[in-house]
Amino acid sequence: EVGGIVAADLIRRLELRAGPHRQLQSVKTITNPPNTRDQSFSLCSIWNRMAIVAWENGADWVVLLGDDIEIECSYHYRAFYRSFIDIADRLNVPFGFGCPWWNDTAFPGFPSFPCVGKAHFKIFGGLIPERRRSNFINQDLDPYI
Fold it and tell me: What DSSP element (H or E) covers 90?
């Protein structure tokens, strides 16, 4: 529930975890649509909504991580920024085009958590093009991106 105790506790824990080296700029809360027990929970539609909210609030890129992920690279922000610059220069495309990804030690060589730039949002209107949004239910989105 937006503004509820659970949401406030989550935001507090995120801020504490960020510590003095905070790169977290802001926290936005969205709510899931009502769902019956008979319906599949569409994780991809939630990811899409979260990304759109981030881009609409000034994010240059988004990375959607699972709740069990530990980031081991202390300079990940700079690495993604540099990747987007390199892609733009090499392909002569706008900054934010392309999908660089984490080096996931659990799945080496597989782009399990791609970083998606704002250019993607400007082209497709979200993580998933409108005509494909019903095709993705659970964790099928990352290889597609």
Answer: helix 76-91
Nearest Cα to Cα of residue 103 among 112, 91, 95: 112
Alpha-carbon distance of 126 to 120, in angstroms, equals 7
Distance between CA atoms of 51 and 121, rounded to whole angstroms? 9
Q: What is the pTM of this model?
A: 0.68
Q: What is the pLDDT of residues 32-63, one digit of tens each?
A: 666 667 776 677 777 888 888 888 888 888 88
The widest CA-to-CA distance across the chain, in whole angstroms, is 49
Contact, 85 vs 36, CB < 8 A? Answer: no
C-alpha Rg value of the chain to the nearest Å: 16
Residues 13 and 5: beta-carbon distance below 8 Å: no
